[in-house]
C-alpha cells in the first residue's frame, strides 16, 4: 500500500529559503557595480594605434638627435589633463628613430652630448650613465638596459609618435 505523503514546508524552512533568496539578490545587487567598476577598464577596448603628431616634418629630421616636446592627453578616472613629454628624434640607417630621454637607471633625464668627455653619446648627469647614439646602454655604466623607444609613423609628411616600448 503506497502512502501518499505530501511534502509540506515548515514555517522555518519557508523563512530560511525566502531570506536566503532575498539576501542573495541584495548581495548581487550591491556587488555587481563594484565588480563592473573593477573590470570595466580591463575590458575596455584600447586603441593601441594612438599616434600623436609632434609637429616635426619628415624632412626636418636629421641624423643628429633633436629633443622634441609634445603634449599628450592623459585620462585619470574622470579627470583629463595634458602632459608634456619629450623624445629624441633622428634618422638612423634611413629610418626615423625616437628615443625616450628618461635614463633607465633611476629615471633622470639624459642629454645628447651632455658631457664634453663623451661626444656623440647620450649622457645622464645623475650617475654618469651613457648610451650609444642608437640608445644602447654602454657596459660599465649604471644603466642596465637601453633607452626606451617610441613607435614612429609618418603621416602626410609629418612624424607621429605612438606608444613607448621597453627594450632590453
UniProtKB/TrEMBL annotation:
The keyword Metal-binding applies. Pfam families: Rieske. InterPro entries: Rieske_2Fe-2S, Rieske_2Fe-2S_sf, Rieske_Fe-S_prot, TAT_signal. It comes from the Bacteria. Gene3D superfamilies: Rieske [2Fe-2S] iron-sulphur domain. The keyword Transmembrane applies. Belongs to the Rieske iron-sulfur protein family. This is Menaquinol:cytochrome c reductase iron-sulfur subunit. It comes from Salisediminibacterium halotolerans. The lineage of its organism: Bacteria, Bacillati, Bacillota, Bacilli, Bacillales.
